[in-house]
Design goal:
By secondary structure, this protein is mainly β. It has helices at 28-31, 41-44, and strands at 12-15, 22-27, 47-54, 65-66, 71-77, 80-84, 87-91, 96-99, 106-109, 115-122, 133-136, 141-145, 151-155. It has one domain: Jelly Rolls, CATH 2.60.120.10. Helices cover 5% and strands 40% of the residues. Strand 12 and strand 13 form a beta hairpin. The radius of gyration is 17 Å and the shape is globular.
Length: 166
């Protein structure tokens, strides 16, 4: 059995340059031995588990849809708002919600305390250039997997299917 305690897992932080997007998280799966770079499925784990904290007034990340990843959320404390194709829905402690591949979503803190939740995501990345990619509908960007852990962010314009092919 692998076992960790949340107090022993280092908290990581990610902020945007202007500060609109801000989160901290504890990557529980990695603390339990997940090796993101490995192509050995027994070392990658079939899912990822993280404890995420969004400070007051901040947004997790831009509105996005995963091509291959599913995500399950369980709110621990605080109040959040969740945007999807139908608009925004407020969530709080005990609420659970789920996004399948292709379902755009965004979370932010609407309360006076930190918005804290667990997220469980399946692990579709298999190394190389296969696995998950993300589409950002508000900006028209894509995050494309370049290897097991790195992403390339691209923004393009609409073109014909055979453009540049012949």
């Amino acid at each position: 059995m692998r076992k960790v305690n949340l107090k022993d897992i280092p908290e990581q932080e990610r902020k945007s340059p202007k500060g609109k997007f801000h989160r901290t998280f504890k990557n529980i799966s990695v603390a339990l031995g997940r090796e993101p770079e490995s192509l050995d499925l027994s070392k990658r784990h079939p899912f990822d588990l993280a404890l995420v904290r969004i400070p007051k007034g901040k947004v997790l990340c831009p509105y996005h849809a995963h091509a291959a990843e599913s995500e399950l959320y369980l709110v621990v404390s605080g109040r959040g708002s969740v945007r999807d194709k139908d608009g925004a829905t407020e969530v709080g402690p005990g609420d659970a919600f789920f996004f399948q591949p292709g379902e755009a979503h965004q979370l932010w803190n609407v309360g006076d305390e930190d918005f804290v939740y667990y997220v469980i995501a399946d692990n579709p990345r298999s190394g190389g250039t296969t696995g998950d990619s993300c589409y950002y509908p508000d900006s028209g960007k894509w995050a494309v997997t370049t290897d097991a852990v790195e992403e390339l962010i691209v923004k393009g314009t609409e073109t014909e299917y055979f453009d540049g092919e012949e």
